[in-house]
Design brief:
Length: 134
């Protein structure tokens, strides 16, 4: 009886310890809600939509940004050029946003605007936003 009680107590303690640790170290299942900022990029992430601002452009993702077990994502969205140039194209273009996220940093590239993806843009949760308006 004592041995059974000891084993039961040990198993309960081990499971409690594992449950407490896994939440702090495992990546989230989606990019967490909030405002992210960086050099040339700003993201406003909510449960069902993400608004993106870039230098002289904007984008939108109409779904949660789901992450795999390594924090990677690849989601469909739109990109729209902005600015006041004569004959500027303000038509939304279908693109893919791909990258990796942790609990407080999103690294992304825009795929589909041309022959090669954009440089990686980095945005930090509650970080300063340095986005040029055109």
């Amino acid at each position: 009886m004592k041995q059974t009680t000891f084993i039961f107590a040990f198993v309960v303690a081990a499971l409690a310890a594992l449950a407490g640790c896994s939440d702090a170290t495992s990546p989230p299942s989606r990019v967490l809600d909030g405002q992210y900022g960086g050099d040339g990029v700003a993201l406003d992430v909510a449960a069902s939509v993400t608004h993106l601002s870039f230098d002289c452009a904007a984008g939108e993702i109409d779904a949660p940004i789901a992450l795999d077990g390594d924090g990677r994502f690849d989601v469909a969205g739109t990109w729209t050029g902005e600015g006041n140039a004569v004959n500027a194209d303000h038509t939304p273009h279908a693109v893919r946003y791909a990258g990796r996220a942790t609990r407080d940093v999103v690294r992304l590239t825009i795929v589909g605007l041309g022959a090669a993806p954009t440089d990686t843009l980095v945005a930090v949760l509650d970080g300063p936003r340095f986005v040029a308006a055109c």
